[in-house]
Amino acid sequence: MSTDLVGTELTATETELLAAYDALRALLAADDLPPCAAAGVRAALAPLAVVVTDLGLRFEHLTDLGV
């Protein structure tokens, strides 16, 4: 994805934030995470999801992802 939700090109920082968000989402989707790791990933993902949503990079509710 090279644009935000309104079509503006992403900056390098926004691209990195989105990549970090996607990486955490992918980790959380892994079925083999121990409970302590899953809890830590959830704890890291929540504030980053707020940033990604506030910047208009992605709009999704974490509860829709089962978080």
Task: Give a description of the structure.
- The protein is an all-alpha fold.
- It contains 2 helices and no strands.
- It has helices at 12-29, 35-54.
- The longest helix has 20 residues, at 35-54.
- It is elongated, with a radius of gyration of 12 Å.
- It starts with 11 loop residues before the first helix and ends in a 13-residue tail after the last helix.
List the main descriptive attributes of the protein structure presented here:
67 residues; 2 helices; elongated; mainly alpha
The coarse silhouette is: elongated
Uncertain spans, ≥5 residues at pLDDT below 50? none
Q: Share of helix among residues? A: 55-70%
The count of strands amounts to: 0
Total helices: the number is: 2
In whole angstroms, the N-to-C terminal distance is: 23 Å
Computed over alpha carbons, the radius of gyration is: 12 Å
In percent terms, what proportion of residues is strand?
A: under 5%
Secondary-structure blueprint:
Elements: H1 12-29, H2 35-54
Helix pairs in contact: 1-2
Provide a short characterization of the protein structure:
With 67 residues, the chain is mostly helical. The protein contains two helices and no strands.
